[in-house]
Specification:
The chain is of the alpha/beta class. It is built from 37 helices and 17 strands. About 50% of the residues lie in helices and about 10% in strands.
């Protein structure tokens, strides 16, 4: 019973797959073309783009309203490179954006006459990337979403020629007749036939003509032979070029796709490409015999173009050690004889093709440009330049997607071919420069449980140390943007490498002051991102970082203690002094300062209570009072409060918004600019024209944000000198905690709860970080740093 059930289930699955591969007549294909034109009119470049669209989709822009955005967005490549992969590849944000731009260019029609070389240092994951990319392409191309059709001809001898004299059929015909009459399966044929299929020596031993036969390439059904196009040409290419535009104009309805087909660059190939020489010859020969184009098209059929890397169909991959084949020209001697017999002409159609035909409308890939792959790349020169490959006297079309991998030191192998330089499009794969991606690699290799052994941010700081060795210590783009980096010394390094790392992840740090945020223009962003093109070639490689992390984690992971920043800094400074030479001078100290500043803000945020009503009243009264002379008394229309407007009144609220350390000149400038914005935009446009409540205006939002920020800065002050508060944190969760004053218990409980819920601390980690903030006196250390939100 179980056997039958299992077999039946297998039968259903395989039948569904077989249904996907069924052959369609030319007219059936045209019907499908009318119903789903965007599915039918696709070459390999468009299918490659559609694969990314399906598995990657649109990116996420964390700052959608930013007017200076350069569309440096977050793409999720998990479904493409990670899911179900034996060796996942993790694309960082920089490489992901770079790759997506190239894929978009492919679809727009910028694919011709180029080979795409993925260039990167050893250990960056190039081979893993390409293998996963090709695996996913094969999966997608063989699915309904990636469906393409290729041409197959069906010829019947009885309708193409007169009676054949007895005994004139080739021996192969007699075997086929014997098989048909005896019911033998193709797999049961006599050994001599199988031998003949495997290889037939060419007549001239000096000719490099392979006659290897694919048994699936010849199907015999009741006097009908099937001739597959070895170049995988689409059936509609059999329509002569000069008639295609009129034909599709008649066939397709006047909708959006038809407009795209006739106007957009990506569909130029539909009207410009020629079918392969074999198909062209067959078409001409049949037209001459049948004297009717319609009857010729009745012999053209479409079958799904199935990709199989292992046999080189649709995808071929060559390693440097793979020797070139002895024979470069492929044919099918038995099929050639059948064609000759049916057409009664041995010279009209020559079934000859090269190995490039097998990847026409597919992907041809070279893994590392060295040894035999250097020769293969040079051989591709003429093919890429002209899109044509010569086989004896026959020209063979080659419209493939050409990929190659290259190490930087191997560029010398092609430097002497100057005419080839403009045919190469380099796509860099450096070492990972996005710290979030670096952490994902650790999680994938060592397990996601590693997070449980680190205080929050410490694991990412380990990644920052690794990435610091991969990026340049000085940046012209950052110097142009922030000429005086010393103002951020409390939470960034002197070379602003930590700032660059944040930008490489797509994050604009909150600690940047307002002026620098305004100066962070699209032009400056492009310059900074552009510098990544020359980084990631030195420092710790991907393999190195995995070894270093394994050593670190094995030494310090404990069940009863979390790994903190002190442990991390000690490891690189004292335990692994051999690694220190690659880490920029002073970077660890700066990293520790940034960590201290960040966790101080987290603790303040977690301890912060505020009275929203009081803040709202202050802002409304302030905005109202700015419109009157000091010394007057007015009733606020927003709050109903009667206000004695004075400089002291305005300064008191400004202290709560800006802080007490602000100079008088800066305070007056702020007051003037706020009053100007209120009268020119907030009151006249947002409130009067757009009927917005004052709470929903842009100016109110900015003042509210700054008020809250300033209150948070002072949140920890009442507890810093309170020893009971520190002890209560240590005792939290134990019996002794119940002995503390109720107010302290409430404050500590509120603090620990917020750290756990907002910042993913464990209770043990929350206690540790609070004690660290108090013992290191971080609030006083950072008292002078009061960046605007």
């Amino acid at each position: 019973m179980k056997i039958n059930s299992a077999l039946e289930h297998l039968n259903r699955q395989m039948s569904a797959q077989h249904q996907h591969r069924r052959v369609l007549s030319f007219e059936a294909l045209l019907t499908l073309m009318m119903l789903r034109p965007s599915l039918i009119f696709r070459n390999v470049f468009q299918v490659f783009h559609d694969m990314f669209e399906k598995f990657v989709g649109e990116g996420v822009d964390e700052y959608p309203d930013d007017p200076e955005s350069i569309q440096f967005v977050k793409y999720d490549f998990g479904r493409l490179f990670v899911e179900n992969a034996d060796h996942p590849f993790f694309a960082d944000r920089l490489f992901a954006n770079r790759l997506i731009k190239h894929v978009e260019a492919l679809k727009r029609g910028a694919q011709q006459n180029k080979i795409y070389i993925f260039d990167g240092p050893p250990g960056c994951g190039k081979s893993t990337f390409l293998n996963n990319l090709l695996r996913k392409f094969e999966e997608f191309a063989n699915s309904n979403d990636g469906l393409r059709f290729e041409t197959i001809w069906r010829l019947e001898k009885k309708t193409l020629s007169g009676p054949t004299p007895e005994g004139s059929l080739p021996v192969f015909d007699n075997w086929l007749k014997l098989m048909d009459s005896s019911g033998l399966d193709r797999g049961d044929r006599i050994p001599e036939e199988k031998e003949m299929e495997q290889e037939v020596e060419p007549a001239d031993p000096n000719e490099e003509e392979a006659t290897v036969v694919d048994t699936q390439a010849l199907l015999y059904t009741g006097g009908c032979i099937e001739i597959p196009c070895p170049s995988h040409d689409h059936p509609f290419l059999m329509i002569p070029k000069r008639y295609r535009r009129d034909f599709f104009d008649d066939l397709l309805e006047n909708h959006e796709f038809k407009w795209k087909l006739f106007t957009e660059k990506e569909y130029d190939w539909v009207f410009k490409e020629n079918p392969c020489t074999i198909c062209s010859s067959l078409f001409d020969a049949l037209l001459e015999k049948l004297d009717s184009p319609r009857k010729v098209f009745e012999r053209i059929f479409a079958r799904p173009h199935m990709v199989n890397r292992r046999v080189g169909e649709g995808v071929s991959v060559y390693n440097p050690g793979d020797r070139p084949p002895r024979q470069h020209v492929m044919s099918n001697a038995m099929l050639q004889r059948r064609i000759n017999a049916v057409l009664e002409d041995s010279n009209r159609v020559q079934y000859l093709f090269s190995r490039y035909a097998k990847t026409n409308n597919g992907i041809y890939a070279l893994m590392d440009i060295k040894s035999h792959n250097t020769e293969r790349l040079i051989e591709l020169h003429n093919i890429i330049s002209e899109g044509v490959h010569k086989i004896d006297d026959i020209e063979e079309n080659v419209n493939s997607l050409f990929f190659a991998l290259m190490n930087p030191e191997d560029k010398k192998n092609i430097q002497n071919i100057q005419s080839f330089s403009d045919r190469i499009e380099y796509i860099r794969i450096p070492y990972v420069l996005d710290l979030n991606t670096e952490v994902e690699i650790y999680r994938n290799i060592f397990g996601k449980h590693i997070d449980d052994h680190f205080l929050p941010r410490t694991l990412h700081n380990f990644a920052r140390v690794i990435i610091a060795t991969r990026i340049r210590e000085t940046s012209d783009a950052l110097k142009d943007w922030i000429p005086n980096p010393d103002k951020y010394r409390l939470y960034c390094d002197k070379n602003l490498q930590l700032l660059k790392m944040e930008i490489y992840t797509g994050h604009i740090p909150e600690w940047l002051d307002e002026n620098d945020r305004k100066r962070f223009t699209a032009k400056r962003r492009r310059r900074i991102i552009g510098e990544s093109e020359t980084e990631g070639e030195k420092g710790f490689s991907g393999r190195d970082s995995i070894k270093i992390f394994n050593d670190f984690f094995s030494a310090y992971a404990r069940e009863d203690k979390l790994i903190n920043m002190a442990t991390l800094c000690n490891y690189f400074r004292k335990v692994r002094t051999d690694l220190s030479a690659k880490i920029p001078e002073g970077f660890l100290e700066s990293l520790l300062r940034m960590y201290d500043y960040t966790i101080l803000q987290e603790v303040k945020e977690s301890l912060y209570y505020f009275n929203e009503q009081l803040i709202a009243r202050d802002i409304k009264n302030y905005l109202f009072a700015l419109n009157f002379e000091t010394g007057t008394t007015e009733t606020n229309t927003f709050t109903g409060d009667r206000i004695e407007i004075s400089d002291e009144f305005l300064s008191g609220i400004e202290n709560r918004i800006l802080g007490t350390a602000v100079a008088d000149k800066e305070r007056l400038t702020f007051r003037t600019e706020t009053q100007r914005e209120y009268t020119s935009r907030t009151l006249t446009q947002e409130i009067m024209l757009e009927s917005k409540p004052i709470e929903q205006t842009g100016l109110y939002g900015k003042l509210h944000e700054r008020s809250v920020h300033n209150i948070k800065e002072k949140a920890l002050d009442p507890f810093m000198e309170n020893e009971n508060f520190r002890r209560a944190i240590k005792d939290y969760g134990g019996e002794d905690f119940k002995t503390y004053d109720r107010r302290i218990r409430d404050d500590v409980t509120y603090l620990i709860g917020n750290l756990v819920n907002k910042y993913r601390y464990t209770e043990m980690g929350a206690r540790e970080v609070c004690i660290y903030v108090i013992d290191q006196d971080l609030a006083k250390r950072f008292a002078k740093a009061n960046p605007s939100p």
